[in-house]
Structure formats: C-alpha cells, structure tokens
Specification:
Blueprint: H1 2-31, E1 34-39, H2 48-63, E2 68-73, H3 81-90, E3 95-98, H4 120-128, H5 130-137, E4 144-159, H6 167-170, E5 174-177, H7 181-189, E6 193-196, H8 202-208, E7 213-216, H9 218-223, E8 232-248, H10 249-252, H11 257-291, E9 295-298, H12 303-308, H13 310-315, H14 322-330
Parallel strand pairs: 1-2, 5-6, 8-9
Antiparallel strand pairs: 3-8, 4-7, 4-8
Helix pairs in contact: 2-11
Length: about 350
C-alpha cells in the first residue's frame, strides 16, 4: 500500500509539475514580443503597398499591445523582390507583399493573365471566395506562408513614342515588364520587345532610354513620378495586377495561435484599405497625369488586344488549367459597396 501511495504521489507531482510548466511556457509565449520586418520596393509613402504595410502594422500593434514590434522598410531597403523573398525563406525577414509570387508557386500568376476579369466586383468575388483560398493553399514553397492578395490595380501602358490604339502601335516598342513570365508573354504577344527590369531601377531606365515604356497601375505611375519620363499614357487595363502577402514559415511557426489569427485579420484589413485607395486613385489620377503633361487615350476597341493575347492562355495551359480559367470567368460577381 505504501508503495502504491508513493507511486500515486509521484504521478500527482509529475502531472502537477507538467501543468505548471505548461502554464508557465504558455504565459511566457503569450507575453513574448515578436519583431516583424516588412520590406517593400516602393519608395513613396502613398504607394498602395506601403499603405498596406502600415495598415498591417497599425492593426497588429493595436490588437497586441506590447507583443508586436512592426518595422516597415520601404524603397527596396532590404533588396529587390526576389532578394526579399529569399530573406523570408531563410528567416531573416518576417513578412512582405510580393509581385513575383510566381517564383514561389506558379499558380499565383493565374490572376495576372490578360483580360481575365470583367471588373473589380468580379476580381474581388474570385479572390475573396473559394477560388482565391484554393489558389493560396496550393503554395508549394513550404518556406513561405501565403496569407492573402493585395491589389496593385489595372495595369495601363505608358511610353515615349506614340499613343496606343491597336496592337500594331505596340509593335517594336522596348517595354519594361515585371520579372515574371506572364507579363513577359503578354507584352511579347502584343508585339513589344519585352525587357524585365526591377521596379527600383525603372525610373532611371525610362529616363535614360534603356526602355521606351512600361505598364503599371495609375497610382504607381503617379507615386513613382513616371510622368516625368513618359509622354503617352494608354488606358488599356489589360491585366489586373495583384501581389501576394507572404510570411516566413520559420517565423509563422513560432507564433501563438492568437497572433496567427490576428495576422490573417490584419492582412484582410490591409487588402480592403488598399482596394479603396486604388479605386479612389483611379478616379482622380487621369486628370492629374494629364495636368502633369501626359497625353492620355483610352482603348476603344479591346477585342484586337484580347485576340492577340489568347496565345498566352495556350502557352500556359499546362500551368493554369483551362477548367480553372473557366471557373474564374464563369464566377458570378458579388456586389462590393466600396466599388463604384
């Protein structure tokens, strides 16, 4: 009996000690401070992704006072987009928003296919719904966690040679493209000489004539002051451009469940903030860019451009399943109150 009693005491002590240790560790973890470095490649504080980064920081520091130290590094301070992603992979950087997400998971690039979406209601319904979740969860790069999509906006073409009214007007232009295959294929299909150049080097490349033009959403054309080195703006809206928000897997796995949930909420709040700012910018910036000296025209007949870029879908049919393209195109749009 004494032996049994002693064993019971030992079990009680062991269990009690384990519970105390668990509670102590949980308390320590709950009180641990996490540093989040969030670099972006855009320099202007008003650029969408800088605003999104700051919104994430604002939400997290308010939601978890004393537990989050948020550090935003704009203007390529921690490298270009590829270098930043590598920092996330090895754990020296915690978080970013990336326009070259396809190097982590090729399926992410499906959003950038030319003339895929009808309008913003259509885009947001797809990205916020089952298809968007499905695409994010397909991420094959196990060193990165994909948390959401952030709007870059409808891409429009600028150049220093002429107004663009048909694909023939693009033929032969040296056009800078984002460093991934969809943009390269799209501009080539339209007849341009497509040249990949990092965003941080683009202004100088336009100024010195390394390239004739580029394509970007209006807010980037404005905040990066491309109007200073570009004459013609064509409202083509040929691609809905987005970024994927990534966290380092190494960092993510250290976070307690409440902060992980808070990170998802912060990214979602950042997405809505960016969308509203992007919509506002599109309404205001055409007049501002004209006043700054740009010659602005809008493509009146989009069908030749749609026809010219059909080859891009054929080229990537093995990466972007035609049935998924069809599901995206067939998605019935919800109505978003902030979309006018």
């Amino acid at each position: 009996m004494a032996t049994l009693f002693t064993l019971r005491r030992i079990v009680v002590l062991v269990v009690g000690t384990a519970l105390l240790v668990g509670l102590s560790l949980g308390a320590a973890l709950a009180g641990e401070k996490f540093v989040i470095k969030f670099p972006t490649v855009h320099g202007d504080p008003k650029s969408l992704f800088n605003q999104g980064a700051n919104k994430v920081g604002e939400v997290l520091t308010k939601k978890f006072p004393g537990r989050i130290e948020f550090q935003h590094y704009p203007a390529s301070q921690l490298g270009n987009e590829r270098e930043i992603l590598e920092g996330l992979r090895i754990g020296t950087i915690e978080m970013t928003t990336s326009g070259v997400a396809g190097i982590a998971e090729p399926l992410f690039d499906i959003i950038d296919m030319p003339f895929l979406f009808r309008d913003r209601h259509h885009v947001y319904t797809v990205l916020d719904g089952p298809i968007g979740k499905e695409i994010l969860e397909k991420n094959r790069d196990q060193r990165l966690v994909a948390l959401g999509f952030w709007e870059n906006g409808w891409r429009h073409i600028t150049n220093n040679k002429r107004s663009i009214n048909s694909p023939a007007d693009i033929r032969g232009l040296k056009q800078r493209v984002v460093e991934h295959k969809i943009y390269l294929a799209t501009m080539k299909a339209l007849g341009a000489n497509a040249i990949p150049i990092p965003y941080g080097e683009l202004y100088t490349s336009l100024k010195t004539g390394v390239v004739d033009g580029q394509d970007n959403p209006l807010i980037n054309i404005w905040t990066a002051k491309f109007f200073e080195v570009q004459k013609y703006l064509t409202l083509s809206g040929h691609v809905y451009s987005n970024n994927v928000v990534f966290l380092s897997r190494k960092f993510w796995d250290q976070l307690p469940a409440d902060i992980q949930a808070g990170m998802r909420e912060a990214v979602a709040e950042g997405a809505v903030h960016i969308r509203k700012e992007s919509i506002k910018a599109d309404k205001e910036l055409v007049a501002k860019l004209q006043a700054a000296g740009m010659v602005v025209n809008e493509i009146k007949d989009r069908e030749p451009f749609v026809e010219a870029t059909k080859s891009v879908y054929d080229q990537f049919a093995d990466i972007f399943p035609p049935d998924l393209i069809k599901r995206i195109r067939d998605t019935k749009s919800n109505t978003y109150p902030y979309v006018e």
